[in-house]
Amino acid sequence: MLSNLMIPAVLFFGLGVLARLIKSDLKFPPDLAKALSIYLLMAIGLHGGVELAKVELAAAVNAIAWALILGFSMPILGYWLLVVTRRVSPMDAAAIAAHYGSVSAGTFLTAIAFLDAKGIDYETYPLIMLAVMESPAIIVGLLLAAQARQKVKLGAGGDGASMVANGNENGDERARLGTLLHEALTNSSVVILVGSMVIGAISLPGAMDTLKPFIDEIFMGALCLFLFEMGMEAARRLKDFKQVGALLVGYGILMPLIGGTVGVAIGHYALGFGVGGTTLVAVLAASASYIAVPPAMRLAVPEANPSLYLTLSLGITFPFNVVLGIPLYHGMASMLAGS
Amino acid sequence: MVDLYPEKLITIITTSALEDRLVRIFRERGTSGYTLVPARGAGSRGEQSGLEFDANILVKVVLPGDRVDTVLDDLKRMIGKGYHLTVYVSDVSVITPEKFTKPFGG
After folding, report:
1. Least crowded by CB within 10 Å, which of A51, A73, A313, B93?
2. Which residues are within 8 A (CB) of A149 and not within 5 positions of it... i.e. 6 or more apart?
3. ipTM surpassing 0.90, yes or no?
C-alpha cells in the first residue's frame, strides 16, 4: 500500500504540505503554477493528439458521450447531497457542486504518473474526456444557482414594483448566462488542451519527433514542480477546516468515493477500457476542479463563499485523491478487470 | 510654487475575476484611464494567496468630482448583486487636470 506513494510527483506534493506545516519561508515565484499548468496541458495534449490520430471514431464518440453524461449528472448529484444536509445555502451548494462535476487536470496527471510508475498501459480516450468535462459542470452550476436565486426572489414576495424589477433582472440574468456560457466553452484549459491535441494529431510524425524532449522527457519533472507548489496551496487551506465543519469535510471525501465508483463502472462496463483507462475515468469522475471553476463561480455566483469551495476542492478532495483515491480506484479497476 | 488642482481618487479592491467588468464601467462612464495592480491580503472572505484561481486586484481611478457618482452607482449595483468590492474615495491633488477629462480608448 505504502509503495503507492513512493512516486516522485506524490512525494513532492507531500514535501509541499510539509514545507507549509513547518512554516518554511519557501515561496515559489509568482505565476509559476500558471506557467507550469500551461506547459502540462500543452504537453499532455500533444502527446494525446499523436495517439488520437490512430483511434477509432466510434469509440471516441462513445467516450465523449459518457464524459458529457458524467459532467452533467455529477454536479446535480453533488448539489442534491448538499441541499439535503441543509448545512450550506443553495448558492454555496450550486457553486460547490460545479467544482465536483468538473475535473482536475493535476489529479489526472498524477494518475498518469502513478500508472507510468507501475508500468500500466492506458487508453487515450480519457484525455478527450478530460477536455470535454471541463465545461458542462460550470453550466449546470450556473443553472442551479439561477434557479436558487429565483426561489429566493419568489420567497421575498412580489408586489407590482418588484415584478417590474424582476423583469429587468431576468434580462440581466440571460445576458450573464450568455457571457458565462462563452467563458465556460472558451476557457483557457479547454483551448490549450483541445488545440494541442489537434496540433499533435495533424502534425507530420517527423516534425513531432523534434518535440519529444519537450513532451516526454521533462514532463514528469514539471509535474513534480507543479505538485510541489500545489501541496503548499492545499496545506494553506488546512486551517479553514474548522470553518467548513466536519460534515463538509466528509462531503469532500464522500464525493470522490462516489465519483470514483461510478467512474470505474463506466470505464469498465460502458467503455470497455483496461485497468489503466478505467482508473483514469474513475479519477475524472472523482476529481474536483480548482483552477477553471473557482473564477467562473466568483463571477457567476458571487453570493457563494469562495473559501468554502476552494477549501473543499483544493484542501480536501485534491489531497485525498492524490494520496488515497488514485491507488483505491486503481484497486477497484483491477478487481473488475481481473474478474 | 506648482499649481495643484483637486480631483477624486476611487480605489477598488476585489477579485481578479471582475477585472473586465470594472474596465467596462470605467469606459462607459468616460473616465480618463485606470491603473490596476495584482493584490494580496486577507479580509472577510479569507486570505487571498495571489494564485491564478485566487487572486485580487487593486484598481485606482482619478476623475473629476462631478463624475464620481456615476461610477459609484455602478459599483453599488454590483455590490447589491452579491459581489465583494472594497471601495473608497479620497481627495487628491494633481498638477495636470486636463489629463483627467478625456475618456480613454478613443
Report:
1. B93
2. A91, A173, A303
3. no
Task: Say if the Cβ atoms of A233 and B51 lie within 8 Å.
Answer: yes
A88 Cβ contact partners less than 8 Å away, ≥ 6 residues apart:
A82, A96, A248, A308
Per DSSP, B59 falls in state E
Query: From the CB of residue B99, how many other CB atoms can be counted at a distance below 10 Å?
Result: 13
Q: In chain B, how long is the greatest CA-to-CA distance? A: 48
d(CA A284, CA A127): 9
Which of helix, strand or coil describes residue A27? coil
pLDDT for position A79 = 96
- Give the range among A15-29, A173-187, A197-211 with minimum mean pLDDT: A173-187
Q: How far apart are CA A132 and CA A138, in angstroms?
A: 12
> Residue A195 contacts by C-beta under 8 Å, 6 or more apart in sequence?
A45
Q: What does the pLDDT look like over A35-51, one tens digit per residue?
A: 999 999 999 999 989 88
d(CA A203, nearest CA chain B) in Å: 31
Closest partner CB to B82 (pick from A30, A233, A302): A302
Question: Would the CB atoms of B82 and A294 count as touching at under 8 Å?
Answer: no
Q: Choose the closest CB to A34 out of B15, B45, B52.
A: B52
pTM of full prediction above 0.90:
no
CA–CA distances in Å: residue A38 to residues A90, A184, A251, A286, B50: 33, 17, 30, 22, 17
Q: Rounded to 5 degrees, what angle do the CA atoms A223, A229, A234 make?
A: 115
- Residue A78 · residue A101 · CB < 8 Å: yes
Place of cell 456560457: A181
* A218-256: pLDDT as tens digits: 999 999 999 999 999 899 888 888 888 899 999 999 999
| Fold assignment, A9-15+29-156+168-338 | Na+/H+ antiporter like fold (1.20.1530)
- Provide the residue ranges of all domains of chain A, joining segments of one domain with +: 9-15+29-156+168-338
- Secondary structure class of A97 (helix, strand, coil): helix
Amino acid (one-letter) located at B105: G
Between A49-58, A182-191, A192-201, A223-232, the lowest mean confidence (pLDDT) is in A182-191
Chosen from A189, A242, A307, A314 to mutate, greatest number of chain B CBs within 10 A: A307
Kindly give, in sequence order, each residue whose CB lies less than 8 Å from that of residue B102, ignoring residues fewer than 6 positions away.
B32
User: Side chain identity at A145, as an amino acid letter?
Assistant: A
Rounded distance, CA A114 to CA A132, Å? 23
